[in-house]
Amino acid sequence: MDPTVRAIHALYASFAYAPPHHQWTVLAAVVATAPDAPDNIISIATGTKCAPAARLSPHGEAVHDCHAEVLARRAALRWLFAEVLRLRATSTSTWLVAAADGRCALRPGVRLALYVSALPCGDASMRTLAALQDPAAAKLMSSAFFPALAPGAVSRGRDDYARLGVLRTKPGRADSPPTRCMACSDKLARWATLGVQGALGARVLAPMYLSDVIVGDVPPALHALALEDCARAFSARVGALDGLPPEYAPHAPTVHFTSEPFVHSRTVLGSPSSSNESLCWTADAAPRPEILIAGLRRGTSPKHRYRPKSLPAVSRLALLALYTQLAPDEPLSDTTTYESVKFRATAYQAAKRRLIGPGTPFAGWVATGAACQQFNAHGDVVPGAHLALDESTEDLPVVVS
Ligand SMILES: [Zn+2]
Question: Which segments constitute the A to I editase domain (predicted)?
Answer without folding.
Answer: 43-355
